[in-house]
């Protein structure tokens, strides 16, 4: 959307920037979800929300440090180049910013929503199959 809004030329460099952003964001998401999986195994008595919070807190500094370090290099590209490389750097800067936001806040919230929905559906199915059970 920002490519159209900024009236950037859509060429192979822009496609490369989009693919780089996707890869970067997917990698960050995998790191956070892997940490969630590890904390679920390490703290089985804690709730899912507590384990998610712990995992995100543990990976937050890693995510921000790697993103900011990369953004310094990309920002220098943006300042000292012209033409398509400037568009590439701008696309990366905007994409990395939105990618970090979506990885930490949107993807994790979606997993939490999904987990609650699965538990709710499982409880509803248990009550339906066993009418003698009452919902707690």
From the spread of the alpha carbons, the general shape counts as: elongated
Number of strands: 0
Number of domains: 1
Structural class: mainly alpha
Strand content: under 5%
Distance between the terminal alpha carbons, to the nearest Å?
A: 46 Å
What is the C-alpha radius of gyration, as a whole number of Å?
Answer: 21 Å
Helical percentage:
over 70%
Q: How many helical elements?
A: 4
Order of helices and strands: HHHH
Mean pLDDT: 86
- The biggest beta sheet, please? none
Low-confidence stretches: none
In short:
This protein is 84% helix and 0% strand.
Task: Describe what you observe in this structure.
By secondary structure, this protein is mainly alpha-helical. Helix content is 84%, strand content 0%. It has one domain. It is built from 4 helices and no strands. Helix 2 (12-42) packs antiparallel against helix 3 (48-80), helix 2 (12-42) packs parallel to helix 4 and helix 3 (48-80) packs antiparallel against helix 4 (84-129). The protein is elongated.
């Amino acid at each position: 959307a920002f490519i159209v809004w900024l009236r950037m030329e859509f060429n192979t460099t822009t496609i490369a920037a989009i693919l780089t952003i996707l890869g970067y964001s997917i990698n960050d998401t995998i790191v956070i979800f892997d940490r969630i999986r590890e904390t679920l195994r390490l703290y089985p008595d804690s709730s899912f929300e507590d384990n998610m919070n712990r995992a995100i807190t543990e990976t937050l500094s890693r995510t921000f440090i790697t993103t900011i370090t990369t953004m310094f290099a990309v920002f220098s590209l943006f300042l000292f180049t012209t033409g398509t490389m400037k568009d590439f750097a701008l696309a990366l800067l905007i994409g990395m910013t939105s990618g970090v936001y979506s990885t930490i806040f949107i993807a994790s919230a979606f997993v939490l929503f999904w987990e609650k929905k699965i538990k709710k559906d499982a409880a509803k199915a248990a009550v339906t199959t066993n009418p003698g059970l009452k919902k707690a």
